[in-house]
Amino acid sequence: MSSELLRIVDAIHRDKNIDTEIIFSGIESAYLTAARRHFGEEVELSVSVDRTTGEITASAAGEHIDSLTLGRIAAQTAKQIMIQKIREAERDSLYEDFIAERGTVVVGTAQRNEGSVVTVNIGKTEAILPRSEQMPGEIYAPGERIRALILEVRKSGQRLKVVLSRAHGDFVRRLFEQEVPEIAEHIIEIRGIAREAGFRTKVAVSSIDSKVDCVGACVGVRGSRIKNITDELGGEKVEIIRYNESMQVMIPNALAPAEIEEVQIYPRMGRAIVLVREDQLSLAIGKRGQNVRLASKLVGVDIEIMTFDELTEEIDNAESNLSTIPGLSETMVDSLIEEGYFSFDDLSVIEPDDLKELTNLNEEECAEIVAFAERQSEAGAGETSSRSAILSSPSASRPAPGASSDRKRAGVPTIDELLGSVEPEVKEQKLTMDQLFGSKQSAEAAPVEEAPVENAVAEVASDEAASDEVGPVEAEGLTVEGDASEESADPATPEDSSAD
Question: What is the CATH number of the domain that holds 369?
Answer without folding.
Answer: 1.10.150.20
